[in-house]
Structure to design on (488 residues):
C-alpha cells in the first residue's frame, strides 16, 4: 500500500494516546455513564455512491480496526452503553461492555440500544483515507421517536491522500473517540468539520476546522406547527406512494435518502427515488462539501429536471434524517432558501426520521410567506404504530 | 458559435423572463462571463467570492456537473448545453 507513512505513535501522542491506556481518569466520566453511543461502518461504492452493506471496498478491514480502537477508547472512558453494528459480519472482537448488534440490518436491536440515540459514529472508507460522521442528538434526557430534537453534526476527515492504511486505523479510531470524550459529547464544542491532511513530504498533518455556515431562512419550532394539515395527510392516505418513500429511506439507512413526489395532471401522486449524490460531491471536495451522505443529501437535479420537463408538478421533496428527528434543519433551510427566498416556493418538504433502520416519524414543511420562515403542517410527528402493518403492509 | 445556457426559474427575473440565453464562449467560465455581460448581476448569483460555483448552485455542461469536469475551465461547443440548476440538498 502506497499510503504516506503516518507515525501512529506520533498521532496517538497528539490526538488520543491516553484513551488507549486502561484506567485513565476523565474529569467527566460520571456524566458519560448513562449515554449511548452506536458505532457503524460504511464504505464508498465503485461509482462513488453512498456506502452501504453492498458497497464496502477492500479497505474495509482497516476501518473495522478503527472502529475497534474507537470502541475500546470509549469503553475505557466510561461510556455506559456502547453498540456496534457492521455490514461485515463480526469483523472485530467487541471490547467488554460493547453490545454487538450483529449487523446494520438488525434494526430492532440497534433502535433499542440507541434510544436515546445520543451519539452515532459512522466510520467510512473514502478515496482519500477515511471519514467519521458524528451525530449527536440534542437531548440529555432521552426522547420519543416523534419528537423533533435537533442534532449536532460533525465530520472528521482523515485525508491521507490514499486509502486508510492498517497502521493508521488505530490512530484514527482513537482520535474520533478522543474528540467525543474530550468534549463530553459537547453539543456546541465539537467542530462542524475537522480535516487532517498530510503534506506530500510526509510531515506532520495540517489540521483545519470549519464552522457551520450561516445564512438561509428561519425555521419555526416543530411544536408550533402552524400550517393546516395537507400534503402529509394526503400522502399517508396514499399508501403505495408513502410506503414507497418509507421503504426507500429505510433501505438507505444509515445514509440519508432523498427523492421527490410529482403530481400529475389527473391529480395522481408519484414518488420518485433519487440517488443521494452527496458522497460524490464530498469525494471531489471534502472541504466545501464537508458532510458525507451519512448526514446530508444532494438530490440528482438532472433526474428531477427530466421528470419536470415531462409536465408534472413538483409537489414534495423528501429526505431522511438518520438517527435524528424529523425536523427541518438549519442546513435544510439554507439549501431550500439560500438567500432567505425559497427556490421552489410551491413545493413542500417531507423529512422522515429513521432510527435503527426503521422510519419512526415524518414531518411536512413549507415556506410560510407571511411569517417568513419554514413551518410544519399540523399532524407532523410520530408515525402511528400500526400504520405500516396495517395500511401500507396490506398494500404491498 | 452560440452556446445555450438554461436559466432556472428563480434567476429568470434577471433575464427578462428568458429561460434560455445564447452566448459565445469556448469554456463554461467564458460563457458565464458573456451571460454577465448580457444580464449584469448573474455572475455573483452563480459564482462566490472565491471564484467557485456557489454552494447551493450546480452548473452542468451537458449531463455532468462541472465540479466533476474541469470546473469553469470545462470546454464547451455548440453541441453543449449549459444548465444552471439550484441544488436540492440539505442534511440533519
Amino acid at each position: 500500500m502506497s499510503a504516506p507513512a503516518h507515525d501512529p505513535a506520533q498521532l496517538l501522542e497528539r490526538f488520543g494516546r491516553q484513551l488507549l491506556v486502561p484506567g485513565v481518569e476523565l474529569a467527566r466520566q460520571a456524566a458519560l455513564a448513562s449515554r449511548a453511543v452506536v458505532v457503524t461502518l460504511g464504505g464508498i461504492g465503485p461509482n462513488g455512491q453512498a456506502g452501504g452493506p453492498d458497497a464496502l471496498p477492500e479497505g474495509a478491514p482497516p476501518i473495522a480496526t478503527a472502529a475497534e480502537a474507537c470502541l475500546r477508547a470509549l469503553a475505557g472512558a466510561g461510556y455506559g452503553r456502547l453498540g456496534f453494528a457492521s455490514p461485515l459480519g463480526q469483523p472485530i472482537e467487541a471490547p467488554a461492555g460493547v453490545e454487538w448488534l450483529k449487523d446494520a440490518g438488525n434494526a430492532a436491536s440497534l433502535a433499542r440500544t440507541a434510544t436515546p440515540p445520543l451519539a452515532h459514529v459512522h466510520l467510512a472508507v473514502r478515496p482519500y483515507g477515511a471519514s467519521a460522521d458524528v451525530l449527536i442528538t440534542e437531548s440529555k434526557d432521552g426522547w420519543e421517536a416523534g419528537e423533533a430534537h435537533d442534532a449536532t453534526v460533525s465530520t472528521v476527515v482523515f485525508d491521507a491522500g490514499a486509502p486508510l492504511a492498517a497502521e493508521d486505523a488505530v490512530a484514527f479510531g482513537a482520535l474520533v473517540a478522543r474528540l467525543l470524550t474530550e468534549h463530553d459529547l459537547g453539543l456546541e464544542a465539537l467542530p462542524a468539520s475537522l480535516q487532517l491532511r498530510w503534506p506530500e513530504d510526509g510531515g506532520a498533518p495540517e489540521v483545519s476546522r470549519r464552522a457551520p455556515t450561516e445564512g438561509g431562512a428561519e425555521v419555526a419550532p416543530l411544536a408550533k406547527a402552524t400550517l393546516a394539515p395537507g400534503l402529509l395527510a394526503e400522502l399517508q392516505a396514499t399508501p403505495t406512494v408513502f410506503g414507497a418513500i418509507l421503504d426507500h429511506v429505510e433501505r438507505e439507512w444509515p445514509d440519508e435518502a432523498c427523492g421527490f413526489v410529482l403530481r400529475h395532471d389527473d391529480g395522481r401522486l408519484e414518488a420518485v427515488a433519487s440517488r443521494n449524490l452527496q458522497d460524490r460531491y464530498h469525494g471531489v471536495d471534502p472541504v466545501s462539501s464537508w458532510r458525507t451522505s451519512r448526514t446530508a443529501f444532494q438530490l440528482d437535479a438532472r433526474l428531477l429536471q427530466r421528470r419536470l420537463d415531462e409536465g408534472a408538478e413538483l409537489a414534495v421533496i423528501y429526505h431522511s434524517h438518520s438517527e435524528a428527528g424529523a425536523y427541518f434543519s438549519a442546513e435544510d433551510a439554507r439549501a431550500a432558501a439560500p438567500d432567505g427566498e425559497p427556490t421552489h416556493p410551491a413545493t413542500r418538504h417531507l423529512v422522515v426520521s429513521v432510527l435503527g433502520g426503521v422510519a419512526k416519524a415524518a414531518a411536512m414543511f413549507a415556506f410560510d410567506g407571511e411569517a417568513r420562515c419554514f413551518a410544519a403542517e399540523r399532524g407532523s410527528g410520530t408515525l402511528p404504530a400500526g400504520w405500516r402493518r396495517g395500511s401500507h403492509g396490506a398494500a404491498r | 458559435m452560440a452556446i445555450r445556457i438554461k436559466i432556472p426559474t428563480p434567476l429568470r427575473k434577471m433575464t427578462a423572463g428568458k429561460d434560455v440565453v445564447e452566448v459565445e464562449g469556448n469554456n463554461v467560465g467564458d460563457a458565464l462571463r458573456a451571460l454577465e455581460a448580457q444580464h449584469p448581476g448573474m455572475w455573483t448569483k452563480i459564482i462566490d467570492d472565491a471564484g467557485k460555483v456557489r454552494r447551493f448552485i450546480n452548473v452542468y455542461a451537458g449531463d455532468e456537473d462541472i465540479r466533476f469536469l474541469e470546473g469553469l475551465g470545462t470546454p464547451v461547443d455548440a453541441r453543449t448545453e449549459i444548465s444552471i440548476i439550484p441544488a436540492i440538498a440539505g442534511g440533519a
